[in-house]
Amino acid sequence: MNKLGVLIVYTAETDIFAEMKKAREIGCDCCQLSVWNPALYTDENAAAIVRAAEENGIEISTLWAGWSGPKEWNFTGGPVTLGIVPEPYRMKRTEEILEGADFAVKLGVSRIATHAGFLPENMTDPQYAAVLAALRYIVKECQKRGISFLFETGQETPVVLLRVIEELGFDNVGINMDTANLILYGKANSADAVSVFGKYVMDTHIKDGFYPTDGKQLGREVAVGEGLANVPEVIRRLQAVGYTGNYIIEREIKGEQQTKDIVATLAYLRSILNGKAE
Questions:
Q1: Mean pLDDT, 10 residues at a time, over the chain (278 residues)?
Q2: Of the four listed, 65, 234, 238, 276, which is most buried by Cβ atoms within 10 Å?
């Protein structure tokens, strides 16, 4: 049975028990835990997170493992700052992603997810083989730890992501499908993407948005149901390929409105799963 949950961002200031309690109180059964700072991967923090999850009855489905260094979420600086694609950051970020895998083991979580960066679409691109080699190393090391590695969608077309997964050739590789990112980056219709790579989807970010209208900036994120993600059709197609994972809500705003939108999305997802939404 698919569980419903929320993305919890974990920083040095996060009261993780309060966040888990809030998730339970609004009706979540699970969460993804997003950690961008590798310095937080300590035994003490792992113990606190596990205790908070257990006491509030929240399953952590995936650790979203971030990395250090510059990050530009656009089409200008993005390709040269994000993920392991940029050569100057590749080695350090590879190590940090694997530190995330070690932390996932401490949490008892079997999956990590991250943005690998703007994966080269041209297979003859000089970067392609080097990026693939780094990914192969990451995936192999994750396999040794009993961890699956998930690509977050967005910065590449579905076909490019499919190709990379096929070339890696490991059974512990999958996709964390963000239903808005494919649109925000102008890469694909979210529902059609499921028809390309749906069998590899292991977790999700339920989100919504619009295509870019500026050639240098991403599209605009909005509350689920207000954009072009067509979440009911995405879920229908995921169910058709046998998806049994969770639906994790991500809303990239802060404050009271974020909570309101998440609560509304939980109700919307329940109506879809109960066959009452179009």
A1: 94 98 98 98 98 98 98 97 98 98 98 97 93 98 98 97 98 98 97 97 98 97 97 97 97 95 97 78
A2: 65
